């Protein structure tokens, strides 16, 4: 393999590293992507990134120790002590820095200069600037803030940091991800997206990059990729821009450079059903298996009484309530992970060395919400769709004025077993009402691991930081499975280009 076939990948605004995971695990002929530097400001996400980089640098015996750590048989400290070389590499490949902070920018420049020193023209930049200011939710939140001036929101300008680094590194290619809101967001009367496109195309001098869509039907989809069309069990629609340096862009036209859609959708059930069943916790007050049984059976009874008389729904709610009362296993362990065969999708994410899936603990829920969870999941089990607020019986409506005005419509949403999930967003860190598990008898929101499964992270991808941070990390990520397909197309393009590239 020539050195030209290994592309050093710089991951900006890296989050927990979903995009980089896809790139580093992609097999595209003789082309490989090696993560040279991941930059992230959040301490929890940074710890996750560093651990994954460490994992990538471990040899086989090191990996055995990693799995002992994942199984709780070795502490993080012991693991690192045993494999200091791999740890040093991980420290080299990750940086906890805030782009746009002058001191941090100087530090980043030093690290980039060290990478650029050998003058090898083999860089690829991935990652997109954060999207809160562009996103529709962000904009509606800001709409209520009379002091909000879009032009002064520094997040609008973070993409300039991205441009600055493109200018410095002059990568052969970049992949920029962002929310769809970027397409319609405006600033001073102009479309943000047009500014972004213009700046990207001129990032390293006028006309230095050409931009492409990776969608097989770009005329219809533009730059938007729908993750569920590429084997991810989740409706996640994001703008993905591929930028190719003008001197290598010809290869785009001569290659079949787009993703290939999967034949079928992967469902929530296929993604989650082999994971151990867990009971929810009870928040605010004592929590034990006996108290939980009592609380959940009562929740099913409340939901059954609220459902229409003589309906199938009422009958099913009663059956579930009885089943829970008669249960004698606590279902709060990962013990049955090894036993169940998974779907093809799940098999691809499991590792036989794991005794249980990491990050698979349930949250506590308020007793008042359990009846809504019971209702939603049982409704979906029967109807094959999540109930909307219109389907909610009056007696279960939350005590919220805005419920009836429709503002909180769909505030409680179950993920339907037979379909891809709705978009996993960082909002999952808040209360989980929007991410209810499809199995009524577990009566709970999704765990971090379940969210990670819907995002196509392998089970050995461990999320560090506190649980709220872990949820945010998972919700923010690009699904590695989608990222791998993007990397594969880019790998093919760049290998065609190998040897033809003009001096940068
Ligand atoms: C959408 S997430 C990126 C997800 C990532 N591409 C992945 O696939 O996992 C954006 C990340 O940018 C980080 N971030 C925001 N502002 C930053 C800044 N100024 N410097 C560095 N990181 C920043 C956030 O903490 C967040 O983790």
Automatic annotation (TrEMBL):
Composition skew (Basic and acidic residues), residue ranges: 350-365
Keywords per UniProt: Methyltransferase, Restriction system, S-adenosyl-L-methionine, Transferase
Species of origin: Erythrobacter litoralis
Family, similarity comment: Belongs to the class I-like SAM-binding methyltransferase superfamily. C5-methyltransferase family.
Enzyme Commission number(s) from the entry: 2.1.1.37
Catalytic reactions of this protein: a 2'-deoxycytidine in DNA + S-adenosyl-L-methionine = a 5-methyl-2'-deoxycytidine in DNA + S-adenosyl-L-homocysteine + H(+)
GO biological process: DNA restriction-modification system; methylation; negative regulation of gene expression via chromosomal CpG island methylation
GO molecular function: DNA (cytosine-5-)-methyltransferase activity; DNA binding
Keyword Zinc attached: no
Name recorded for this polypeptide: DNA (cytosine-5-)-methyltransferase
Active site annotation, chain numbering: 131
Annotated NCBIfam families: dcm
InterPro entries: C5-Methyltransferase (IPR050390), C5_MeTfrase (IPR001525), SAM-dependent_MTases_sf (IPR029063)
Region (Disordered), start-end ranges: 330-365
């Amino acid at each position: 393999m020539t050195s030209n076939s290994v592309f050093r990948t710089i991951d900006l605004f890296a989050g927990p590293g979903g995009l980089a995971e896809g790139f580093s695990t992609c097999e595209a002929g003789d082309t490989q992507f090696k993560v040279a530097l991941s930059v992230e400001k959040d301490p929890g996400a940074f710890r996750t990134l560093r651990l994954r980089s460490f994992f990538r640098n471990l040899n086989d015996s090191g990996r055995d120790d990693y799995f002992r750590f994942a199984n709780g048989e070795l502490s993080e400290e012991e693991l690192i002590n045993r494999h200091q070389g791999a740890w040093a590499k991980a420290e080299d490949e990750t940086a906890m820095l805030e782009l746009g902070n002058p001191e941090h920018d100087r530090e980043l420049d030093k690290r980039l200069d060290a990478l650029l020193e050998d003058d090898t023209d083999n860089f690829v930049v991935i990652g997109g600037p954060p999207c809160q200011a562009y996103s529709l939710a962000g904009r509606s939140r800001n709409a209520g803030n009379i002091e909000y001036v879009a032009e002064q929101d520094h997040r609008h300008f973070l993409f300039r940091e991205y441009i600055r680094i493109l200018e410095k590194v002059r990568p052969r290619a970049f992949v920029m991800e962002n929310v769809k809101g970027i397409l319609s967001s405006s600033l001073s009367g102009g479309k943000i997206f047009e500014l972004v496109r213009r700046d990207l195309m001129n990032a390293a001098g006028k006309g230095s990059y050409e931009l492409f869509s990776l969608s097989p039907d770009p005329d219809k989809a533009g730059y938007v990729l729908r993750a569920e069309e590429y084997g991810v069990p989740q409706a996640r629609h994001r703008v993905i821009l591929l930028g190719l340096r003008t001197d290598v862009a010809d290869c785009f036209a001569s290659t079949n450079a787009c993703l290939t859609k999967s034949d079928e959708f992967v469902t929530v059930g296929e993604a989650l059903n082999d994971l151990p069943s867990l009971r929810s916790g009870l928040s605010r007050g004592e929590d034990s298996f006996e108290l939980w049984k009592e609380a959940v059976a009562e929740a099913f009874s409340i939901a059954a009484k609220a459902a229409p008389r003589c309906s199938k729904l009422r009958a099913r709610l009663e059956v579930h309530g009885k089943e829970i009362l008669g249960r004698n296993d606590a279902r709060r362990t990962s013990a049955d992970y090894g036993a169940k065969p998974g779907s093809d999708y799940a098999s691809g994410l499991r590792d036989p060395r794991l005794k249980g899936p990491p990050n698979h603990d349930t949250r506590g829920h308020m007793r008042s919400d359990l009846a809504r969870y019971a209702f939603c999941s049982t409704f979906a089990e029967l109807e094959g769709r999540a109930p909307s607020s219109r389907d909610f019986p009056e007696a279960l409506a939350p005590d919220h004025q805005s419920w009836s005005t429709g503002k909180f419509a769909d505030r409680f949403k179950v993920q339907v077993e037979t379909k891809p999930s709705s978009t996993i967003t960082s909002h999952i860190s808040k209360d989980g009402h929007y991410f209810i598990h499809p199995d009524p008898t577990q009566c709970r929101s999704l765990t971090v691991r379940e969210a990670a499964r819907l995002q196509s992270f392998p089970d050995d991808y461990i999320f560090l930081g506190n649980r709220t941070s872990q949820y945010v990390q998972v919700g923010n990520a690009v699904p590695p499975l989608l990222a791998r397909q993007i990397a594969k197309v880019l790998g093919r393009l760049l290998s065609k280009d190998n040897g033809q590239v003009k001096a940068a």
